[in-house]
Amino acid sequence: MKKTWLIIIAIVLILGLWVTSKYNGLVRLDESVKTAWSQVENVYQRRADLIPNLVNTVKWAAAQEQDVLTSVVEARASAMRTNIDIKDAQALATYQEAQGELSTALWRLLMITENYPELKSIEAFRDLTVQLEGTENRISVERMNYNNTVRAFNIVLRSFPTNIIAKLFWFEQANLFEAEEWSDVAPVVEF
Q1: Cβ of 19: how many Cβ atoms within 10 Å?
Q2: CA distance 156 to 25
Q3: Most distant CA pair in the chain, distance
Q4: What distance in Å separates the CA atoms of residue 40 and residue 43, rounded to the nearest whole number?
Q5: Domain range summary for the chain, segments of one domain joined by +
């Protein structure tokens, strides 16, 4: 009789350790997703912080392009006030749209520099555009890192038998960051 109880206790302990291990693994991956998303937001913030400096540098040389400057400022404001839950696909899509509008506005701003050769010679403008280009590259890298982290989390979350533990503790799949609708069309630059 004692042997039977020892076996039952051993099985319960092993099962408990296994559940704890799977749960902790899911928590670790979930936190990795959140950290990766925070880094995406970090590079978006960096871009948003650079924009006022770029706009002020361009203002004096491109006063007649005020609509472009206004669209950049408005797009930045829209992108900055969008708060999202990364598990909410609609909120993520809204966030992506705001960031896409900001990218489009920045592209238009940089295109007007072709009409103002003296602007290109301003060292501050060159530095800011280099910083902005570097930031855009960082955004791309961090989006990729985020998507890789989400992919790893979602694979574990959906794999058997971890999916049982995930359902018991209400873990949900994370959403991938998808490309904007217009991103597959190359911009046309006309002089």
Answers
A1: 15
A2: 9
A3: 93
A4: 5
A5: 25-184
The predicted model scores a pTM of 0.63
Neighbours of 6 (CB within 10 A): 10
pLDDT tens digits along 30-43: 999 999 988 888 88
AA letter at 49: D
- Judge whether 172 and 86 are in contact, CB under 8 Å: no
Separation between Cα atoms, residue 180 and residue 36, nearest integer Å: 19
CATH for 25-184, among 3.30.470.20, 3.30.1330.10, 1.20.1440.20, 2.30.30.100? Answer: 1.20.1440.20
Which residue spans within 77-178 are E strands per DSSP?
Answer: none
d(CA 182, CA 164): 39
**Model pLDDT for residues 93-103, shown as the tens digit of each residue:** 777 777 777 77
Q: Which residues contact 41 (CB under 8 A, 6 or more apart)?
A: none
The dihedral region occupied by 53, where left means phi > 0, alpha psi between -120 and 50, and beta the remainder, is: alpha
